[in-house]
Amino acid sequence: MFLMNCFRKASIGLAFLPYLLVILHLAQVTPVDARWQCMPHFDDQVGQQTAICWVSEQKKVLCQKNSCVPFYNQNRPFGSLTFVGCENSKAGKTGVTVSNLRNYHHYPNGDEQNGHKGYVAVFDGISKLWYNCAYDGYPDNMNVYICSSCK
Question: pTM to 2 decimals?
Answer without folding.
Answer: 0.75
